[in-house]
């Protein structure tokens, strides 16, 4: 969905709404409203209670945050902002800005808010901001792709995000941990998007690294190249479908990212020494 607010750049902004199931609302953390907005300087929001919490990450620009009972806080690019929307909210874009944001709620949302606010305040940075940002992006990608991430997975991502926010900017050795999180995120992303034509450039961008440096770090973390990891992940997924289901080779190709049944059969024979159908028969004996 596109926004209809003044001083929000419509073409470069989007948002999605979500209503949890009754059981999900009782058990999980969940998003209610999330998106990416590009604001023009001068954007101002003054809003009454919403009965949820707002977390946003400033990718570029600068904001002024007004929290009841506190002096005005200035937030800069690279900062997270956490707001209790059960109270009135007010903030302003001091410059042109880009923000990744999520309104969330759930059984432990208040406890997370209170803990983070007591430890870090309403505006803070973290040791591995990219780790949290990638999980925010992943929730958004699930809606953007026309589908939905399962409620347990969304809750896990939100838990990861809020746990990262509960730390501080000096809680861990920055470079090594950041690289570890980035490589784990990329591996998770590959496994979740096998049907997509993933490229090293796209994966490097996700990890916020140059293409050459990303390939080097990925090999160091996994012992293999991104392409080889992707091929193996596709093959493993195909083997699971062959052994556990009766779906056609065409369906497996579409699900696992192979360009055609003939390309799949050739790759499978090279990897396993038998055809896909021979493999299916062998594991069901």
UniProtKB/TrEMBL annotation:
The HTH araC/xylS-type domain, residue ranges: 184-282
InterPro entries for this protein: AraC_XylS_family_regulators, Homeodomain-like_sf, HTH-like, HTH_AraC
Any one Gene Ontology molecular-function term assigned to this protein's record: DNA-binding transcription factor activity
Top-rank taxon, per record: Bacteria
PROSITE patterns given in the database record: HTH_ARAC_FAMILY_2 (PS01124)
Signal among keywords: no
Residue ranges the record marks as coiled coil: none
Alphabetical keyword list: DNA-binding, Transcription, Transcription regulation
Transmembrane segments: none
SMART domains: HTH_ARAC
Name of the featured protein: AraC family transcriptional regulator
């Amino acid at each position: 969905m596109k926004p209809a607010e003044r001083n929000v750049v419509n073409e470069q902004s989007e948002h999605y709404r979500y209503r949890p199931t009754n059981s999900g609302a009782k058990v999980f953390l969940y998003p209610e409203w999330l998106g990416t907005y590009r604001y023009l300087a001068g954007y101002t929001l003054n809003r009454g209670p919403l009965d949820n919490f707002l977390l946003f990450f400033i990718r570029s620009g600068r904001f002024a945050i007004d929290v009841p009972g506190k002096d005005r806080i200035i937030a800069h690019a690279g900062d997270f902002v956490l707001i209790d929307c059960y109270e009135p909210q007010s903030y302003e874009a001091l410059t042109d800005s880009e923000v990744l944001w999520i309104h969330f709620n759930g059984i432990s949302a208040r406890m997370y808010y209170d803990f983070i606010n007591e430890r870090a305040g309403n505006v803070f940075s973290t040791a591995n901001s990219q780790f949290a940002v990638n999980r925010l992006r992943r929730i958004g990608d699930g809606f953007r792709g026309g589908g939905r991430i399962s409620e347990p997975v969304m809750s896990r991502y939100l838990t990861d995000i809020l746990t990262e926010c509960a730390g501080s900017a000096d809680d861990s050795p920055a470079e090594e941990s950041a690289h570890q999180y980035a490589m784990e995120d990329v591996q998770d992303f590959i496994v979740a998007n096998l049907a997509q034509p993933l490229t090293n450039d796209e994966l490097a961008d996700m990890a916020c690294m140059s293409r050459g440096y990303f390939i080097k770090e990925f090999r160091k973390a996994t012992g293999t190249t991104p392409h080889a990891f992707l091929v193996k992940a596709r093959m493993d997924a195909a083997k699971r479908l062959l052994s556990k289901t009766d779906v056609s080779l065409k369906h497996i190709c579409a699900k696992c990212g192979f360009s055609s049944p003939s390309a799949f059969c050739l790759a499978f024979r090279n990897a396993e020494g038998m055809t896909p159908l021979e493999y299916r028969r062998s594991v069901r004996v």
